[in-house]
Each structure stands twice: as C-alpha cells, then as structure tokens.
Amino acid sequence: MGKACFLIQTEDRKGILAEISGFFAGHSFNVLQSKQYSDMRENRYYMRVEVDLDNVALTHRALTGEFDEIAKRMNLKYSVHFSEDRARVALLVSRASHCLYDLLAHVREGDLDCEIPLIISNHPDLEHVADMFNIPFFCCPAEPGKNAAQEKVVLELLERHKIDLVVLARYMRILSENFIDHYPNRIINIHHAFLPAFQGGNPYLRAWQRGVKMIGATAHYATPELDEGPIIEQDVERITHEDSPDDLKQIGKDIERRVLTRAVRAHLEHRVIIAGRRTIVFAR
Amino acid sequence: MGKACFLIQTEDRKGILAEISGFFAGHSFNVLQSKQYSDMRENRYYMRVEVDLDNVALTHRALTGEFDEIAKRMNLKYSVHFSEDRARVALLVSRASHCLYDLLAHVREGDLDCEIPLIISNHPDLEHVADMFNIPFFCCPAEPGKNAAQEKVVLELLERHKIDLVVLARYMRILSENFIDHYPNRIINIHHAFLPAFQGGNPYLRAWQRGVKMIGATAHYATPELDEGPIIEQDVERITHEDSPDDLKQIGKDIERRVLTRAVRAHLEHRVIIAGRRTIVFAR
Amino acid sequence: MGKACFLIQTEDRKGILAEISGFFAGHSFNVLQSKQYSDMRENRYYMRVEVDLDNVALTHRALTGEFDEIAKRMNLKYSVHFSEDRARVALLVSRASHCLYDLLAHVREGDLDCEIPLIISNHPDLEHVADMFNIPFFCCPAEPGKNAAQEKVVLELLERHKIDLVVLARYMRILSENFIDHYPNRIINIHHAFLPAFQGGNPYLRAWQRGVKMIGATAHYATPELDEGPIIEQDVERITHEDSPDDLKQIGKDIERRVLTRAVRAHLEHRVIIAGRRTIVFAR
Amino acid sequence: MGKACFLIQTEDRKGILAEISGFFAGHSFNVLQSKQYSDMRENRYYMRVEVDLDNVALTHRALTGEFDEIAKRMNLKYSVHFSEDRARVALLVSRASHCLYDLLAHVREGDLDCEIPLIISNHPDLEHVADMFNIPFFCCPAEPGKNAAQEKVVLELLERHKIDLVVLARYMRILSENFIDHYPNRIINIHHAFLPAFQGGNPYLRAWQRGVKMIGATAHYATPELDEGPIIEQDVERITHEDSPDDLKQIGKDIERRVLTRAVRAHLEHRVIIAGRRTIVFAR
Question: Which of C227, C235, C243, C246 is catalytic?
Fold first, then answer.
C-alpha cells in the first residue's frame, strides 16, 4: 500500500503538534517521519508527516475523509500525497541539453520518482535526446508576435498528458502570467545565477564583468514576476580571475544541473511548502 | 523564567510523538521547537523539545517531577536543561592559541552562552591570552612518567570549579581512561584532520604526503579510544598541490577554529544526543 | 593547426623558467598559458605550457624535435600533446550507471574532449546505455578463478581500439598489477569515499557507522596498491544523522559523478602531472 | 635580507614572460614563485614574481633601479614589495567586534604579517578590545551634518600613523569620495552579503525575506560607488527556512570574519592586482 505524505500549514498556536500527532496515533499509524516548523515572525505553523500505509485498514479515500474533518476543525491548509501516485512531469527545454540529460539519467537510475510523458521544446535540436530515452518529443516553435498561440499549444499538450509538474530545464522563453496561472506552484525553473544577483539575461558575462569570486544557480517556482519566485535550492562554486565568461558558462552548467535535479527531487518527495515568497524545504 | 530543553531517547514505537507532545499540550506549554528522529536501523527514537517557561506556573522542580513520571511510564532516557543554568566550561590548551581566541571571542560577543571559569594548560605560553580576557589560568606541566599526578591536579581544578564541559582546544595530551570517565560525554576534542582519515599525530604532513585535495578538522567527544569518539562536527577546505605542509597547517587552523566553536555551540544549545558511536545533532 | 601543450618536470634550479620561456619566445610562439610550480621540499620543478600553433611554420614533428634538444640539454622529463589528437577513452563499468551517464552526457555536450570507442563491462546490465549513445559495448564476464583470462580479453580490446585512457566508472573489479602495468598513469578510478578514509569495500555503510558528518568521493590514478594511487580530485557533501546508509549511497552517487568527470576532464586537458604519490593539477 | 615581490601588469604580447624571467635569471635571482595570467578579452598581462634576496648583492634601491629600466622599456606598470617592510594597517570599526577579534587574533598568531598602529571608531564601545591587545584606540564620533569634519580627524590620524592599508572591519559609515581618494586601492571593506545581491543596508533581513538558501559576505576595495568596488574574496554558507533573520546575522558574522581576514591576508601577501572592476588574486 506504500506511504502517505501530508503537507500541512496553519496559524501557529499551542497544542497543534499534539493534536495532529494524536490523530495519527489514534488510528494506529506508523509515523515514518514527522517534521514541524514554527515561523514565529509570521505566526505560521508548517508540518510534514509521512505515514506507513502497510497493514492499514483505511482506504485512501477514507483516510483523506477522516483527515479532512480534523483539518476543518483545526483550520489546516493541507495536501496529501500517496506514494502509489507517481507524478507526471513535463520537461521544457530549448537548446542546452545538460539539465535534460541529468534529469533523465536520474529518472532512469531510480533517483527521481516520476513519469516523464513528454519533452517540449521551442527548438528541434534536442529531439535526439528524447529519442534516446524513448520519450515523446514535441517541437513548438515560437514565432515573433505569436507567443500566445505557442503557449496555447504547449498548454494543450500539458493538459492532454495530465501533467502534474512542469520543469523548465533551460527553457529560454518567458512565460506569460496566463500560462503560469494554469500551474500555480507547479512550475520549477532553473536560473543560471545566484539570485537575487544577476536577475535577467546573460548572468555569466555579467558575473565575469563584476568580478565575483563565486558563481551559482537557483531553482525556483515560476511566478509572473521574472526570477522572483520562491527559491527551492541554490548552490555555488568558487571561480578565479582566470575563468573566462565561457569557463563560467561551463562551470555553471554543472551547478545548474545539480541544483535543478535537487529541487525537482525535493518537490517530488513532497518536501516543499510554499510560504509567500519563501519556501519551507524539509530535509530528507 | 526562560526556556527548558528536553533531550529524549527511547525505543522507537508507534504513538511516542503524540504521547510526549500531548504531555506538553496538556500542561499548556508553548512548544518553541520540537524535533524528532527515528533511527529505523537501530529502532531508536530521539527527540528534542524546547518549551517556553514564561507565564508557566510550574517550578523547575515540579516540571521535572511531572516529566519524570511520564519518562518512567514510557521508558524514556532524558535530560532537561533550563536556560537559566549557564554551563561552566573549562578550556584546556597547550601552545596553539587559535581555537582559544575564537572560543573566547565568541563568548564575549554573546554567541556562545556559557561561563569560562578557568583555562588550564600544560605550558605557560598562553597565560597572556587568559589575562587579556580576565580568566584565571592554571599551568599544570606534565613531567615524564607523572601523567597520573598531572591529571589529578587538573581533575581537582575541574571539580573545584564545578565544570560541566571540558573543551580540549588543541590540548596536546592524551587523556587517560580514568580522566575521561570523570566527564563522560562532556569532553569535546578538536582533531586536526578529517576523521577517520589521519588519526593520530602529524595529520597535515601526512595529508600532504598522501596528496589529498581537501583537508579538514573534526570535533568529537573524547572516549578512551583515541580519535574514535562520536563526531559532532566536521568541515573541510580545498587545497592544491602548491600548498606546503606549513600552508596546510595554517589553512587547517581556520578550519579547526570554526569546527570546534560550532561543536561547542551545538553542545551548549543542547542540540546533541550521543547514540553509540554516532551523534544526533539537531539543527538550530 | 590548434594548440600544443607541454607538461614538463625537472630538478628545480635557477633560470629554468627563463630558459624554457626563452625557447618559446625565440620561436615566436604565442604562449596561451604558462604555469609553473616549484616543490621546494622535493626540489622538483613542474611546468605546463600551452602554445598557439596557428600561423606557426613548424610541423608537429619539427616542434617536438626542437624541444627534444632543449629537453636533453636541460634534463627535462616531458610530454607534448597536440589538440588535433583527440584522446581515445575506454569506459569500464559494472552495474551502476550514474558515472557512465554523466561522462557520456559531458562528451555529447562538448565538455569532455575525447572519443569513446567502446564501453566494457563484467555485467550485461548497462548495454542499453551504450546503445543509447551508439557506443560499442563488450561484456567480459568474470568467472571465479579466471581473473587473468578475463583481464586478457579486456586488455586485447583496449589494445585493438588503441585506447589512451582507461576510466573505471564504478568498475567493481580489482585490477591485477599486470593489467595496471599496461596503462601506467593512464587508468583513472573513482572511489566512493573521501580517501584515505574508508579504503576498501562498503564505504558508505562504514561512514554511517562511524557517524561522519560529511561524505566524499575520490578520483585517483590506479596503482597496484588498492585505493592508494595519486589523487586527482575529491569532493564532499554535508550529511546529517537522518541520512541512512541508503541515503548516503544516493548522495554519494552525485558526488562520485562530478568528481570523476572533473578528474577525467583535468587529465584530458593535460593539466595533471604525477609526482610520486601526489599529483600536480594545474588550474584551468 | 628576505624576499621581494613584484606585481606587474602590461599589454599582453608575445615574449613578455621570457623577457621578465630573463631579467631575474640574468641577475641570478632565485625565483621562489612566478605566476602569470593573460586576460585575452582585455589583452592585458598580469604577473607576480617573488624572489629570494638572501645572498643577493644588490641593494633594494639598486634592484628597483634596474627593474625600473626594464619596466620603462617594456611599458610595465608595477609595484615592488620587500618582506622587510611590514605594512601598517589601521582598523576602523563601529560596534560589532567579531571581525576585529578575528583580525587581531590572526596578527597575534603570526598569520597576518602587519603592524596595527591604531584602531579608530565612531563609537567608544570597542575600546576594551583595543586595550586587550595594547593598541591605541581613537574614538571619532560622527555628528549629524559634520561628516567632513569627522573624516578630517580620521584622515589626520591615518596620516600621522603612516598607514598603508585601511580595513573597514564593520565600520558603519559611508566614506566620502574625498576620503577614498586619499587611499586609492588601499581601503578594504567587508559587506555582509554576497554582492551584487543585497547591496546597501539590512542585507540579512532582506535575504530572509527573499528566502535565499545560502547567505554570504564579500570583501572588496572601497570605491566612491557604494558596494561596487573590486571584489577580493567571497564566501557563503547554506541556511534553511528555520533560520530567522537573527540566526542569519549570527551565521553571517562567522562568514564575514573569515572573508575579511582572507582578503586582508591576500592584500598583505601582495597577491592582489586591481584590474578595473575586477581583481587578479593569485593563489598562495
């Protein structure tokens, strides 16, 4: 029967932990992991509970139904995720293949638990990579002034394939607010800089010009404000004056791929709760 | 009235979290932070609970008494720490001053919450540092073949000053099992290598000879087996072929100071539980 | 015409830099990069010089011939590498695919400049990966007691394909001294621990048992002494008490892949000189 | 007689290395270390040469004179530094002591080679630290609207004490262009953020609000444009959602102290050349 994972948030107050953990104890659940966090500045309470469903008499529907009651009573905002339901992830790419290879290799190796029903690109270049991994590839080229039409095609593809999560693996298009509204908190982007430094284009060249001593990458949820969405994961690497802008690009590729893969993993493992502009990312 | 911090461990089983958090909810405590960890390999449960004592009617004694009952019933092994009781820490040094300066500066800046009633050394060299910080300094020289006698003097000093924690801040003596038994799990040592690599003497020279590309330092509780005690904190820094053994020593000093200070801080903040050869170090 | 790269070592003494750089200046070479290192402990001098061959009248043979003379006169030990000559690299694997995917993706992306004429394994499992990348795959199973025979087959394959560099990308066999002698300083291995800690088998389980707070991986040249060869690259990642041995394995895979890829890149870019048990790794 | 260190820059062209190293070889100097870097984007050549002065017949003046000639002929911009001449460093502070302690401890331990003739502050708070280390302390309070008068007092102190380098160790004043012009490329500031992110005030609070997953610090030369000067050193540390703005401040203090100390060390060891908005920082 696998596992169920609850992501919960509510107003912080006394006794929440006792009440919620009491619920699971009362049903004789084996709690595999429970993590909580009280944000005292914002007076919010966040919680992740993972329970074992083996040898549990309740159906998913019954479990959800019962938790719904306590959630209403306690005014909890929550989502529940069953390990049986594998997320369906669409990868959107342009011409750069490094993040794509890394994500697909991790899926193959069993280190990213999801389905990849399709890969979408605005360029035909990476079709061969999709072919290698036997994943349907859709090229949706973007013509000047026809942004809305192109997005419509992409959205239809996503919908038709029942996509749960959209990963922008170096997809070099700016998404419209309309597009983002279709997948709120379900679009992950990789920005090739240590945000909020070097928002916008050409970050490696600008990093070189500014003479920084470390470069980084940032994975974040996409929001209508470009490069301003809640950050899931960041990492950096030390550089020196000897590294040219091209070297930074190459070093950056290795940072980007690991940052994006980690962020997608955190999302797929239901370890992320969005809290305004911030994210709560529970450790594994 | 400050805060109380409970460090708890017991056999892992269903319902522990609900029962313990129920205790604190039942007494209307404001739980500031609660963290748990189930080690499924060893079937052990570890927990840290921090509660606010302001506006709480219970005395320390009454609180401890009540928790004692639940602890007996649930077979919990635990310790409780009140923020009022500042730990009394003895620093043992030899000739190297870098860790000593860093610890004392952090105490002065308010970033290590403890008293330093005395500094003990087997050499007179660092008396001037103790003087700068107005801390009594005791020189207990070690003569060949008179190890036991020297340790006896040190132990008497520690006892007379009611020491809670002994920090070996580059104290270049091997402690006897007898000495260590007086302060079980209450002696923190800094080893100038990334354990278990380079146990024993001269680690930087050996690291150079082996040609490693990173060097590190390790803070651990002292046990009778040299350099084998439970590790609290480690860190490393990248080096290159250009760094001589002397460079490694200098780079290493900066790693040692931050690793030891972090480990002492984790201990003083009651974030460490010893579990056999391993430590549970709860994040801040 | 591309570039030529000289890797030089000799006894350290006055005037070497002037004499060698004088040679290149005398022939009006454009020196793209020159790096030197004097190991004062061992009294050895190491140098890497990269020169532009565009608009240079000398043939490769003539250039080598002329440098040979100065090398004899100055008693230099050296090798020269022309950018035209792409290294031919054999990948040896067993069942784990993570390093294999990362190396092949980097080759495809143009970030590892080499040919991969074949992949060899003692297991059939990864043939599909070789197929994806259109690389011939040879399965050379190892039967108990027939180690020498299996190695003979592998060596013949390597010879037939004119292999310059052998990369053990999680090849779970211990190579004989005879095998290693066929490719001195030309076999790179990835060890899944931060050497010299946890030499030998099962390093992640042993790291968990020891309770270390960081785990790492080490890429090194293979020598007859297991896990004792000169280290090219190492890296680590922070772990916590919550990470199980399986988590360490998964975290470790990401360290292994980046460490091995970096080491192979350094070798292919002619940035590594072996100096006894140590390596000189010139920065890019 | 110690050592001499030359920092050189010029237009990049063929034969520079041969000519300059030929100069030192011609005078039979023992070159301890020589590092070069060609910035091909800007067509500039940068070099650091360290020579042994023991057993050398030339006086400092004669050496400088001779090098002056080759510098004129080759159009080199250079500075020369003799190890005999210890730099005189002024520390400017406000109320935070962490960088001050770290710098002074490193000087005491022999890991920063300089004199500290005085400490200047706009507040009286840290006089006791200066006293501990027996360093004259000058309090130059800043009254509203009397910025120029205060700076004049500070400048006179610096001049009277023949200061070579000014270190702003969390000096919470914005310096005027006039002040900076008195010490071009000789004022090092620590900014408590990973520049160019979070320029200006309150960076830790803003980092918390933005939800970044790493925080950092930046040491740079002060220029009239606030937080825009050439960066010498940066470092970061990973944080989590659990870290409050106050935690970030505390974590940040440890990053700031090590970043500033490393930057000052690089400057004092004559390893930094300023190249427009960038710095060339030669490795040790």
Answer: C227
